[in-house]
## 1
Amino acid sequence: MSEIVYEIVRRKSDIENGQEHEHVRLSRSADRLTRCVDGESDAQIPEGTTPLAAIQQDERLGVVHEAELSSISVAPDLAPRMPLFLRVRVTGDQLPDRDDWDVTINDVPHAPFRTTSDTLRLLPVDSDLDIEFSTTWASISFCETGSMTSGLDTVTLGLISDSVAVSSTRLDPLVGAPEMPVQLWDLTDDSTPKIVSDWITANGLIDYLTTPSTMLVRLFAESAGADKRTEPTVRWGDFLAGEHADDGEIGCGPSARWELRLDLPPEIVQATLDRLSAEEREYAVIIQGVDDPGPIDDNTRTAPTPMHGTRRSDS
């Protein structure tokens, strides 16, 4: 008895009523996989090939094309890793607007996003066509309070499935900033502390603002060392930059407001701190300084307000 583990129905978007023009299925019987296409002979998949590998290797199964309406159904055990295996094919160099795509996976809307490895991946989206996170681990936001034109820039880390973590950056739309590529991690390969430490030290917000990674390491350490709370940790740029504070550098001055929202278990936070400390001596010094400030007066450790020059800690 065979079972269908994956199927994709394609319709041309420029055909009236979206008439179906291809229906491809992947069926499994015992340890054998078969690709079935309406109107064609069945094709046996080489023995030992996993369903995910078959989807990735076969264009008829694993490629979603521009100007097509694609409806995908996939078995529950395969669905969480679909974003890592499906591919997107476009015409030309420009990615069409996301509202021009009509792709569902198990009835959930998906749209293509460019990744840091310069590939296009289909990710779940909400009604605003932003990435739909199932769980949010952390988010960092930045704004320049001394600028009349500054909006909010945010980078978010979380899960889109049980198997895939994503980092997405949203920049102030008023400044005409480019869309930053998303970062993807496979949870079968990477541990949560590794993913979080990777994200803290290299993300779309850092890339856009050219912010030193040491600032976000300090922000993370400050948040980790705070008492348990529901409020985010807020620090100011000159405090986070320390001896490298420079009013002329974006994010490093006393009017640069940084905020971290953290929703991770304490053991994951501690494991991330340990990993950061082992990664670079400069990170270790920062984390140790937050954990054990010694005789340093706390007012010298926390950023002054832009107006009064006294301690400003909104958490």
## 2
Amino acid sequence: MIRGASYKAMAALAVAAALVAQRAGWHASGATRAALGYAASALLLMAVVEMAAPILGRRRLHPAPSPAIRPRVVVLVLTALLAPNAAARPLAPYLVLMPRTPPTIPLAILIGSWAVAVAVLARRGYSTRWLAVSLAGLMVGTRLLAQWVWPFHRLDGDMLENVRRAFEAMSFGHSPYLVEAPPMPYLPLTLLPYAPAWALGVDLRYANAVCDALTAVAAVYLGRLVAIRAGRDADSGPAIEQLLLPCLMLHPIWVHFGANTQYPPSVLLATLLGYAALLSGPRLQAIVLGLATGANQMIGACGPILLAGWARRWGPARAVGLGALAAAMFMLVLAPFLAWDAGPLARSAFLERGGMSGPVMSGRFTFLPLASRVAPHAATIATALVLAAASWTAHASRRPAATLAAMAVGLCAAMLFQPVSFAHYFLPAVALAAILPPADGRAPARPPRPIAALRADSRAGAPARRAASIFRLSRNANCEK
């Protein structure tokens, strides 16, 4: 039997392998590309399920609590993750990453800053502040390297270009959802984090670096609260909850998505939603759910799962009220843009999302082409079945961690049956799974002792108990005198 932290780390390695396999599959074609895509999809789903399996009681792990990770191990792991980002050009033919080597001076500054952080650790010892500052610096540094390698006008997608066009439309007094094709389908809390960068006239991707740094800091501090609440050491070294998500975010493919797509705000809000499910009361959970859905429609798939968990823990009536609060927060986010011009927002963000054809879906994280051969409305049926199963799982357990595990697995599985699929769509589900505590977070139950041993202890302790009784009686008699 292995420890929960080690098991979860191995599941995270499987997530990293799935990202690599899906990205490398783009070099294939035809049936080979489709088969690689299905294999990568199965590997990703299995990895997320295995992250959640110990929480849901599907795996028996070592009963002893996992110790804190040693600082020297932290240094080795982060250095190993920094290396492929610093030398991403040799990996580009395999992972479709950076087209050229990062600039020398920014790369030297990043490596030098990490060396200074290691020297501070060696001199002053480990602290949560050191980990938060170091991870935030690594997030910003790796994103800026990717940003300087990929010029904005040469990005391989129209995500951030749509955001830029939306802000241009707003500057002329038009609704951001009135831009010409391709439409701008991103909800307000995905759009608005880029407003300061656009107002300052700088690259919009600086906002991505800030969002990813905030995500890493949230994982460090909120993950420490999760570890402390579970009675585990978080002072001599980081717990697995603090380190796993930032390590995945330093994966070269995640760095590419974090720098060049619109998903960092969604990952940040999904992470906050996960920690709200673990640490806070139901009212704050409902508020964060509404805000997270206001950034990404698919995070709304966590709503029925949370609702089932609320119904089990606080009753159906209060669960309905909390669901209404989450819906109200979501509508509050949309209200200014609905008042501005409701029609384009409803069409581009909800009604006219469209879909990808079978050849385009080939090689992506998806099971929809296979499921469509079985049922004509496979996306709707499969999504409903997945959310029903995840909601039942959340309702069957009173533990907040079990609700979060059901959210991670349900969101990942539901995304595999959507008519549009990109690899970065799965980052919020992976983030929810990464912040789950290991199954050995709670103190193990004391094993029962044999009857003969209990009798021997009773006989051995009888004289001591009689002496204590005589002492109490004599003390009481003296007090009465």
## 3
Amino acid sequence: MTDHPELTVGIPTVGREYLAETLQSVETAATAYDGTVSVVVASAERPRALDEVAFDAVQSAEWVETAGSTHENRQAILETSGTEWVLFTDDDCRVARDVFTAYAEGLAANEDEDLGALYGRVKFVGERSPVFDAGRALASVPFDAASHEQTVEWAPTANALLSRSAALSVGGFDTENPIPFSGGDVDIGLRLTEGGYTGHTCPNAVVEHTTATWDSLGTNTRRFFRYGQSEAWLANKYPGQRIPKIGADETTPGPFRMSLAYLGSCVSGGEDGTTNPTLLTTVLVILLAVVFTVTNSVGYHYQVLASVNLPNRLLFHRFRPEGRYL
């Protein structure tokens, strides 16, 4: 019989209105779980959604005040949580009704491991546009790693169940990370791995991520700029993880790689089976990918030049493909 451990759901928020849907999904999932579920939300200001959602199945819902950065929010959640296992998600996501049971089963299946984290699948839901398609296809964030990998070094904290004791033993989330929003999931995953912990996947644990926050040209342009910055920061922090930019294993230009993946998705019908783009749409997606690729490169080199601690040789290095965003 599967045990049902006490769980904390940690949600760092930047004040998105979608947070109410996130919290409601946690309440719904808690009604289907035989164990205890608590919620910790961290942000600079108390979100109204905490007062708008009626919690019954959730044992407690707590707000922690921070300076406001995502890295500080996640660290505050770790420190505040009263349970060993903390499920991190984001304020533009909804957890599936059976997500807690799925993670309980995943913990039971890996109880003999030096388990530091379990990572579930992140599934995008909502309307798709060329801006979303270009951003999603180009970003090498392993949202769906749990579908095809048993162990990983890291995966997005949009759906990550972390061992509180393990995460704190390696220093927790790096609150000195200078890049807003980016790099923290890679960093904590690599430090858990270096600390001797294992990151297993849990494919039945699903979180739905709205496409709306990936559907703006301005937002995605800033996102890829930050991804470039965080790649430079990570390459400096983990020198053993970087490879030459010239002559590296992966030399195919990003937009071309993305276009092949996108066109393949079109032929197969895409993730949801509904993709049926016109030639114009396909060309637009590829052009947007070029914009995001350039923005990513600018962000990378900006961070190299702006940080006195980064050696100039990093201009000719990059974070390894398996751990990089782009």
